[in-house]
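Morning. Coffee machine broken again, so started the prediction first thing and wrote up yesterday's gels while waiting. Chain of 173 residues, entered below exactly as on the submission form.
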Amino acid sequence: MNNMTALTLLPQEQLSTAHTHEAGELNRYRRLALSFLPLAPHISRLMAALGVECEQRIQALQNVARQLDLDACVDLKPPMESPFLARSSRHFFVVDEAMSQVVLKEAEEAAEVTCRLFAWLLETNATPELHRPLLAFVTQKNNEYRIIQECREAGGPILRNRVSDSEMADAMK
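Came back before lunch.
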């Protein structure tokens, strides 16, 4: 028995999984953007930019689904949160430096889970039309993880804005 055959998902399963997760990620980044807005607008802009990238990935998934005549896999209204990530029950707005570090650590952990999920989707892919988008998503998600990690490791993101908007935009490419 071929081990890869046992691990290969159907295109509808891959599209549905990727779309559900990415829609949850979009909502999470939007919440994070709002959470940081009052105290750390530079972090808020970063999270908003990551949300925009989620929107672009969702659009790419919809385009591939249309090409494969699997529109129904991405037309369903996805849940507000990704089922692959832990839920957070913290206060909505970031109110101090300590809380910002906790929230950024949670964002970093979620980004790491997302990297692993998309790498797994790429590894289990057997659909040529999905290869290029999934490969791009893996690269983007790795960059996303690295950016959030660097932001958290910079220490004191509220007190010290070490990353300018132009540096952030360059790093996301």
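Helices lie at 3-7, 11-36, 41-67, 72-75, 97-123, 128-153, 165-172. Going to sketch it on the whiteboard this afternoon.
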